[in-house]
Design a protein that fits this description.
This protein has 407 residues and is mainly α. It folds into two domains: 12-213, Hypothetical protein af1432 (Orthogonal Bundle), CATH 1.10.3210.10; 221-400. It is built from 15 helices and no strands. The chain is elongated, with a radius of gyration of 36 Å. The N and C termini lie far apart (108 Å).
């Protein structure tokens, strides 16, 4: 401890670390890091500085604490899980380059590793760093910070929680984390208690809301996600099929154009005479016919298929047709369409059944698209193979068997 009246100062090595970490986090971390970013690191370091002065740490302990605080989350630039160990390595490399002693580097690295959730603080420096790292549980912005962490997990870890699950995790977090230092207890204890009470209320509210929102068939967020993903997948598959069909149309129309142009200009002219050999017409005819067949099926695959069926009230209520498909509802008057949509909004079961039918018929259309597309590719492949084989056979036969025209 320092004598009364003495105030710790931020040393030059700490200032260099601040500059290094600032450029590192702002340059390497993406916008997806909503919580674990430079702002969080700066908040932790600033509180460590205040607490270090409050406890009148020795110069070396004060410097070790601030260096650990600034480097404790730098590991996020390399990985999410196990970032503490990576942060310790980054700090070690930086401090080694600055000529720090091995023992002090290990002390700072141990401090960084103590920020793991499962590690219990064993000394004052670790307690200060822990309290600074979770200081938001004792602040008014606890719930705002929690929302930022939730968004971060969704974007980076692809962890999606419904409201009840998230509020339960928040309640578990604020209950499990207790301030270790007297400074944090006095400064943040009262607000932490209020946050814990409010968090418990939010959890119970989320539970009640979830139970109320589910009907007898338990339709909820999972069901809505299922339909949303299914629609998106069908749209993506349809787009893929159309792109493949367009590619086949482009390739085969080029081949057809080339063959027709060559035939029209009198291919295989020899010495200014008329066509000397007609034998090359066989592979070209095969290629011509296969390209024609392939492009026809590709066109049929990409061709819009719109139904023109009128949907009756009886069909709608008996689940025999869907009003959601544009080929159906565009054939009825606007007033009738609005009335049918109003019916759907008032009946969740009918709504989901219409969506299910819509997905089913989208699947039927996709099945037809890919079947025609498969035929297009197969005809093109078989025709190309046959054309090449026939050309090779004719060339070999012409060279080694006969010196006279085949035809």
């Amino acid at each position: 401890m320092k004598n009364d009246g003495e105030v710790q100062k931020v040393t030059s090595i700490v200032e260099e670390a601040v500059d290094f970490v600032s450029h590192l986090l702002k340059g390497e971390l993406t916008d997806q890091f909503k919580f674990h970013n430079y702002t969080h690191t700066a908040e932790v370091a600033n509180l460590c500085e205040k607490m270090g002065k409050y406890f009148q740490l020795s110069d070396e302990d004060f410097e070790n604490l601030l260096l650990a605080a600034w480097f404790h989350d730098t590991g996020f630039i390399r990985c999410y899980s196990g970032h503490e160990a990576e942060g310790a390595k980054i700090a070690g490399n930086f401090l080694t380059a600055k000529g720090f002693e091995k023992q002090r580097i290990e002390t700072i690295q141990t401090l960084i590793l103590s920020t793991k959730a499962e590690v219990k603080a064993t000394n004052l420096l670790e307690e200060i760093l822990h309290d600074a790292d979770v200081q938001h549980i004792g602040k008014k912005n606890f719930f705002e910070k929690g929302q930022l962490l939730r968004e971060e997990w969704e974007l980076i870890l692809h962890k999606n929680f419904d409201e009840e699950e998230w509020q339960w995790m928040q309640q578990k977090f604020i209950t499990a984390n207790k301030f270790a230092t007297q400074y944090a207890k006095e400064k943040f204890g009262a607000r932490k208690k209020k946050n814990a009470e409010k968090q418990q209320f939010l959890f119970k509210k989320a539970q009640a809301s979830k139970n109320k929102s589910f009907d007898t068939e338990k339709t909820g967020r999972g069901t809505e996600t299922m339909y949303r993903v299914s629609y998106r997948n069908h749209i993506n598959l349809s787009d893929i099929a159309d792109k493949k069909a367009n590619m086949m149309m482009s390739i085969n129309t080029l081949i057809l154009s080339a063959i027709i142009a060559i035939a029209g200009s009198g291919f295989a002219m020899v010495g200014g005479q008329q066509v000397e050999y007609y034998r090359f017409g066989i592979p070209m005819a095969i290629l011509l016919l296969s390209s024609l067949g392939s492009v026809i099926f590709a066109i049929l695959s990409a061709k819009p298929n719109v139904t023109h069926n009128l949907v009756s009230d009886i069909e709608l209520r008996e689940r025999k047709s869907s009003i959601l498909y544009f080929g159906n509802f565009t054939q009825i008057p606007l007033e009738r369409f609005l009335s049918d949509m109003e019916t759907l909004r008032g009946d969740n079961k009918l709504l989901y059944e219409n969506m299910s039918m819509d997905i089913y018929y989208l699947g039927v259309v996709l099945k037809k698209k890919f079947r025609l597309l498969q035929l297009s590719y197969t005809i093109f492949m078989v025709g190309l193979i046959m054309a090449v084989i026939s050309l090779i056979f004719i060339l070999i036969y012409s060279k080694y068997i006969s010196k006279h025209p085949i035809f």
